[in-house]
Design brief:
globular; two-stranded antiparallel sheet; mainly alpha; 21 helices; transmembrane helix
């Protein structure tokens, strides 16, 4: 590790040194969290004992962060794309065998090069957050090099988050105005759509923030009213979900609702991180008080809600990055609505889940060819030969299959 620190060039933006440094922290067994923890502590001790290397690492990380675009890291990692379920499924299958080429433009690509092992999130998240905070403080508080140009990494990071907030807001608006969602909730057309109103609020908030960053003496309004709009968006999504559990839904609508919920949740987390008022509540999916309490017991470094939320988001992004091509996660995200399918066998119409219908039909071996083709098409035109169980019944109760097989075989 010491030899790697000595190779750091604060004026370079090459990623190879950082790749080697993280490899020095990575345990060969991802479950060996004690090894990873000890290596992070060793890195902290080395940097404390050699301030010059800490300054060099600060200059190196600053140049890396400023030379790459940040927004896509927050808008794409851990959030389903707008391509649709089957296109996303095909992409994940393809990238499992041939990942896309990586460049030096986006910060997400840098993370892809550094945390390239699929199990990296296990040891990264297992290392106590206090050790990561200590490492961050050592590097960020190191003295800047004498010949280093002035740089404000915090402002670079905030600008990337603000750009991501605008992108996510536009995405929420587009998804919220999708025809299939409006058909499921026609009341949206009778009143001002919260999906549209939140975008107006976001633009006003970002305009005020831009003036604040430019040095203007303006009082930035907090985003509480924006959060009210997001609450209304969540209420619409929850109502559609409740209707889907009783009336059934489609693969496309399920995928849309999942992508919408993920975008709103990420939007809340970013708004909390860029908030300057200190009064904005955190995202409902983030148990911030518990995180702060756990971190305070594990470190002597100062722990604030914003620092705790930043660590939690970093853990979320690392895990989502390592699993971004996992087909299992895509299926898990899309089966929580219990999609209901319709299968016609002979003269009997059965309303069962896709997984149960396929299992019964194949076991009975009485399914008509035309009906089989129709079922396979519903599972994906481009994946007819893929043995995937897309959807299962409700998780809390097992479906009652008594009588189904006998009716199929008759």
């Amino acid at each position: 590790m010491l030899s790697t620190l000595e190779r750091i060039d604060p004026h370079s933006d090459r990623i190879d040194v950082l790749v080697d440094l993280v490899d020095q922290l990575r345990p060969r067994n991802p479950h060996n969290t004690l090894y990873a923890t000890e290596r992070v502590r060793l890195l902290c001790q080395l940097l404390k004992g050699n301030p010059a290397q800490a300054s060099a690492l600060r200059g190196y990380m600053t140049r890396l962060l400023q030379s790459r675009r940040h927004a896509s890291l927050y808008t794409d990692i851990g959030i389903l794309s707008n391509d649709g379920f089957f296109t996303e499924l095909k992409t994940r299958f393809a990238y499992r065998f041939l990942p896309p080429a990586l460049g030096n433009t986006y910060l997400a690509e840098a993370i892809d090069q550094v945390l390239f092992v699929e199990t990296d999130y296990q040891w990264v998240n297992a290392v106590p957050a206090g050790h990561w905070l200590e490492l961050f403080d050592i590097v960020s508080h190191a003295a800047p090099l004498a010949d280093a140009p002035p740089a404000d990494v915090r402002q670079t990071t905030v600008l990337g988050m603000l750009e991501a907030i605008r992108t996510l807001s536009c995405r929420v608006t587009a998804l919220g105005l999708e025809p299939r969602l409006i058909r499921s909730q026609p009341d949206i057309e009778d009143f001002d759509s919260p999906f549209l109103m939140q975008n107006i609020e976001v633009n006003d908030y970002l305009d005020g923030y831009a003036q604040l960053l430019a040095g203007a003496e303006v009082e930035l309004e907090d985003a509480k009213h924006l959060l009210v709009m997001l609450d209304q968006c969540d209420a619409v999504v929850a109502k559609i979900r409740r209707n889907a559990m009783s009336q059934g839904t489609s693969v496309a609508l399920t995928y849309l609702l999942v992508a919408l919920s993920q975008s709103i949740d990420r939007l809340r987390k970013l708004l909390f991180l860029v908030d300057v008022s200190g009064d904005l509540p955190s995202a409902p999916t983030l148990e911030l008080e518990t995180i702060v309490s756990d971190m305070e017991t594990a470190t002597s470094a100062p722990v604030t809600p914003h620092r705790a939320a930043a660590i939690a988001l970093a853990h979320e992004l690392v895990e989502a990055h390592n699993n971004k091509y996992a087909v299992r996660d895509l299926l898990a995200d899309n089966i929580d609505l219990g999609v209901t399918g319709f299968l016609a066998i002979g003269t009997v119409n059965l309303v069962v889940s896709f997984g149960l219908a396929l299992w019964v039909a194949l076991r009975a071996r009485k399914i008509h060819f035309d009906h089989g083709i129709q079922l396979l098409k519903s599972l994906g035109r481009r994946f007819l030969a893929t043995p995937i169980q897309f959807f299962i019944g409700p998780r809390d109760t097992a479906p009652d299959t008594s009588g189904i097989e006998s009716r199929v075989t008759k």
